[in-house]
Amino acid sequence: MEPAGHAVTTAAAPAAPAVPGRLAGTAAVVTGAAGGLGRAIAERLAAEGSAVAVLDIKAPWWSGPDSPEGIGAWHCDVTNTEEIRDVVDQVAQAHGGIDILVNAAGLLSGRASLLETTPEDLQRYFSVNAAGALSMVQACHPYLKASRHRGRIINVASRTFFTGSPGQLAYVASKGALIGMTRVMARELGPDRITANAVMPAQVATPGTLAHSSDDAFAATMAQQAIQEFVTPEHFAGLVAYLASPDGALVTGQSLVCDGGGLLH
């Protein structure tokens, strides 16, 4: 359900359907997946056959003890390295390893002048959006290296690193760091046959982005796209599923944008 006061049109071509069995036999960890883009990613990976662990500091989207088929939830704060190690080991024991890591946890940003941004603001965004991803990679690495599927790391970054979004210095800087980190991960972990890629969505109407952007902002963003249709979480999840699939085995170190041709990067 969208927050009150928002009526963002989501008319768009439907996302491609899941490919049943494409990820059969794999186990995936998706951080920040209690809702929004992370939820769509978790659901898509599960629909393609992966056993998915949803990690978040929030309760998952379902209620009651019965989780969706192929999905389980663990509480995890990505700024707490000890908790990360414990949870990652629990997930690996439950599923016989970890093949796919999607770092979708992140702090979103309102807008404030760079002249008002403090070092503490910068550190807060870096702790989740960059350092959190690093800690997850470090904890998951032994399992990704041992994966028969070939380990996959998919980092949810932001195209604002290329657009220089005014008023979001701390957010943009932290996501830019994640893009740079992804390239180093690809180089250093390539000998382990682990891929690492950064994926960047359009301005997608999730509860998190709706809290910071008006209907007019969404419409203005969409108007700059080559294909003027709103991108949905399901479109973005399809890109992640491709990178996690056998077809993505030799795609690494890349920054891929799913935004209807707005950035043309």
Automatic annotation (TrEMBL):
Name the domain of life: Bacteria
SUPFAM superfamilies attached here? NAD(P)-binding Rossmann-fold domains
Q: Does the keyword Transcription apply?
A: no
Which ranges carry the Ketoreductase domain? 26-204
One example GO MF annotation: oxidoreductase activity
Q: Which InterPro entries match?
A: KR_dom, NAD(P)-bd_dom_sf, Sc_DH/Rdtase_CS, SDR_fam
Q: What SMART domains would the database entry show?
A: PKS_KR
Q: Which UniProt keywords apply?
A: NAD, Oxidoreductase
Q: Which PROSITE patterns match?
A: ADH_SHORT
Q: Which family does it belong to?
A: Belongs to the short-chain dehydrogenases/reductases (SDR) family.
Name by which UniProt lists this protein: Pyridoxal 4-dehydrogenase
Organism, by scientific name, is Zafaria cholistanensis
